[in-house]
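Please predict the structure of the following assembly.
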Amino acid sequence: MPELPEVETIRRQLEPVVQGRRVLEADSHPSAKFVPAREIVGSRFGSVGRRGKYLLAALDDEHELVIHLGMTGTLRSVERPTSEDPYVRARWWLDDGRVLEMRDVRRFGRIRVVPAGEHGTIPTLRDLGPEPFDPDFDGEQLWRALRASRRRVKTQLLSQRPVAGLGNIYADEALWLARIHPGARRVSRRQASELREAVRTVLGQALDHGGTTLRDYRSVDGRQGDNQGRLACYGRAGLPCLRCRTTLVARTYEGRTTTWCPACQRR
DNA sequence: CGGGGTTCCTGGCCGC
DNA sequence: TGCGGCCAGGAACCCC
């Protein structure tokens, strides 16, 4: 899915498209995941924010539109609806004549409208960890958060609780950079500190390059990301580690393929 | 409650 | 060419 760098790239492009625009009409796929898109007819968009992988668009200072893009979701602004595209799941007609479309092949994305700031009914958003670039996010905080559970560090990162915004790609990248075994069930203060640095480095680099496009990801302007050629670990099982040349290995943890270097990421 | 398995979807790719 | 099986960037939900 779009992870933090991809969602942030989308946010930056989306805000100037919708801010100040009133929604004249809306339509959606009949699934309950998308039907709330229809609730915002008549509302005017304010600023567009982001928490973790969630887009939060203010509406008339009273509500907010919460969009999660799931695995394959994208947003785009078009001159007129693209009727030939069967994967458009929601569509908003704006008062400047443009149409905002959410496309999502697998339909793992979700749309909700909630009173401003009230995220309690969205489980992962309610329990979301700190933003990785928040000045308050430090190694000590991450160490404490990881210590609170005995689950594998990889699994914990995907839960969004210790820190917001990592998915399978950047979790593997950050653990590789910090030299931490993804299956570890506890990490030291020092490791947590290195992981905090690695998370920022990996996400910052991806953001600088417009995100990672493996297949579906596009930003609002339709462009692919440019970070896929810079991945050091994710998807490289069987290839040499870029630090020590040992062959990277992969296995499944809690249903997610995980890649790491058996030499420089020891338990 | 924390943890783990299941479920929601479609498409691409591989092997037979 | 056709088809079955497997895999894919996520998280909500249900049950123990």
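Residues 184 and 215 of chain A are 30 Å apart (CA to CA). Strands of chain A lie at 23-28, 45-51, 54-59, 63-68, 73-78, 88-94, 99-104, 110-115, 249-253, 256-260.
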